[in-house]
């Protein structure tokens, strides 16, 4: 087999692998981030202060006119950002700063922070300047920064440094994603690796879903944001990353955990936002934009244990989807494959999770269901999961799903580890909240 091309996107998301089938078959995969050389540090508020509302600030020198400047700033309970007394935005964000905001000589960068609920405010920032003479300057949070309370006459005190910001845990998206070089990825004979795109987290979020349209373009979803379309260059392009085109789709839908292109439509499983559920997007006027949006299956539930992924059925006639245990069964179910014995009997009093996680949530727990292309004829296929984020079919049409454990249960008799399940029609894997989980040896459960 020849002419196969391995391509991969990199972004702040969990690894997803997709087989793209077109004139040239391409496999997309994600690479592991490498450590960045930049080392900004976290700043914390002094423990001696009675209140935790104030301003972190730092003075720095600029030797001449500024050509361009960008600021990456974020943290916990952070807020307004100012330069030389002028507001330039709010954290967390990546901000482009107009050169006119700087002055030759001393400049002052300030970041406000306020305590809200549990935890004290912390900030981290990195300012990158390009001067007119071509030189570059970087200003980062660290030693030399001060903190002052939000009150008249407050005295600025040194801001404690609370540890380096870890680029390998780049939760704020400070650094341009770095990836394993293509030459270091081992692939089978006749495969080739190409880097297509690095997802900038502060601009485009965390991509958690991907599908391919009939033109070979990739449709991607930000976990908390919008949808994006990636047009890869032809195979064996001289510089695939430079030639890859990325556009934001014109839709108000946000927070998709699952995407599927099928039946001349883009299906999106919306997990965030006011109305969760399965949506269908279509292009009715041929302008290559999705101008019609329909909610096919409303679902009640969201977050990490909400509605998740989508798959096309092996016969190409219906759509399967999976939901975590914080998603209630759909209001209208036309058919249930298994025994609908969702009442719970416990010989011994149930022990709920001590932290209150999933307290009060009863069977069937997480489930896999299917619908027709119009969102009708909804069928519950199997259930009893904790939080199966994704699933796939093998060549025989069998479903395999990956279920998460309850990490706080480790060491208890009812702990169930993360596991890959073969998920048959009508199966119940016996997730029940707290200590009520079915052991794998129950005859009516599945291992």
Question: How would you portray this structure in words?
Answer:
With 447 residues, the protein is mainly β. It has 2 helices and 32 strands. The strands form 7 sheets. Strands 4, 6, 9, 11, 12 and 15 form a 6-stranded antiparallel beta sheet that branches. Strand 18 (218-222) and strand 19 (227-231) form a beta hairpin. It is globular and about 75 Å long. Mean pLDDT is 85; it is low at 1-7 and 10-37.
Produce a short descriptive summary.
With 447 residues, this protein is mostly beta strands.
What's the main sheet like? 6 strands, antiparallel
Radius of gyration from CA coordinates: 26 Å
Number of helices: 2
Give average pLDDT, whole number: 85
Strand-pairing-aware structural class: mainly beta
Residue share in helix = under 10%
């Amino acid at each position: 087999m020849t002419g196969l091309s391995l391509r991969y996107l990199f972004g702040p998301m969990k690894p997803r692998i997709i087989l793209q089938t077109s004139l040239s078959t391409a496999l997309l995969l994600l690479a592991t981030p490498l450590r960045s050389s930049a080392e900004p540090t976290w700043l914390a508020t002094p423990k001696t202060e009675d209140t935790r509302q104030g301003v972190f600030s730092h003075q720095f020198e600029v030797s001449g006119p500024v050509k361009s400047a960008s600021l990456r700033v974020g943290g916990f309970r952070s807020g307004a950002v100012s330069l030389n007394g002028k507001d330039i935005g709010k954290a967390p964000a990546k901000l482009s700063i107009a050169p006119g905001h700087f002055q030759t000589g001393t400049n002052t960068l300030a970041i406000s922070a306020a305590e809200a609920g549990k935890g004290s405010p912390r900030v981290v920032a990195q300012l990158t300047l390009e001067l007119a003479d071509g030189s570059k300057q970087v200003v980062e949070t660290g030693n030399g920064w001060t903190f002052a309370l939000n009150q008249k006459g407050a005295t600025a005190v040194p801001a404690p440094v609370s540890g380096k910001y870890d680029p390998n845990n780049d939760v704020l998206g400070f650094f341009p994603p770095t990836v394993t070089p293509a030459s270091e990825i081992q692939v089978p004979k006749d495969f080739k690796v190409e880097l297509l795109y690095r997802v900038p987290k502060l601009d485009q979020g965390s991509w958690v879903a991907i599908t391919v349209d009939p033109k070979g373009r990739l449709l991607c979803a930000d976990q908390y944001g919008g949808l994006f379309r990636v047009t890869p260059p032809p195979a064996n392009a001289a510089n695939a990353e430079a030639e890859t085109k990325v556009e934001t789709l014109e839709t108000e839908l946000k927070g998709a955990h699952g995407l599927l292109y099928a039946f001349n439509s883009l299906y999106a499983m919306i997990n965030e936002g006011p109305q969760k559920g399965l949506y269908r997007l279509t292009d009715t006027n041929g302008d290559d934009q999705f101008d019609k949006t329909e909610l096919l299956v409303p679902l009640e539930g969201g977050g990490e244990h909400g509605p998740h992924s989508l798959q096309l059925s092996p016969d190409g006639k219906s759509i399967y989807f999976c939901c975590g245990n914080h998603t209630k069964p759909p209001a209208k179910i036309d058919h249930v494959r298994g025994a609908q014995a969702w009442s719970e009997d416990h010989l011994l009093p149930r022990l709920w999770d001590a932290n209150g996680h999933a307290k009060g949530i009863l069977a069937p727990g997480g489930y896999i269901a299917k619908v027709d292309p119009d969102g009708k004829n909804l069928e519950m296929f199997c259930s009893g999961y904790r939080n199966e984020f994704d699933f796939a079919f093998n060549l025989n049409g069998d479903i395999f799903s990956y279920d998460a454990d309850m990490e706080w249960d480790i060491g208890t008799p009812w702990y169930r580890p993360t596991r890959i399940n073969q998920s048959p029609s009508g199966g119940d894997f016996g997730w029940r909240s707290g200590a009520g989980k079915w052991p794998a040896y129950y005859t009516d459960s599945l291992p």
